[in-house]
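Notes taken during the Thursday session

The instructor put the following on the board and asked us to keep it in front of us for the whole hour. The protein is Putative small secreted protein. We were told not to look anything up and to reason only from what is written here. First, the residues (75 in total):
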Amino acid sequence: MKRLLVLATLAAALMTSACVTVIDAGHDDHVGWHGQNAAPFDGARADCRARTGRNERSDAFAACMAEKGWTRGEH
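Then, after some discussion, the predicted structure tokens were revealed:
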């Protein structure tokens, strides 16, 4: 029984650890990014800013972030 409880706890932890939500507090509208098995957010954002000219509202920026496993949530 104890073994089953430990396995269930580990399974629950693993299922929730792959999903991440980041709220970008630097913007007034608090754009939320969601990633599952995604690249680290800060590195992905820095790379996409450099590749797209820092225009975070562009389709190119969103596509770049999607390549790295991040999608923008509804606001």
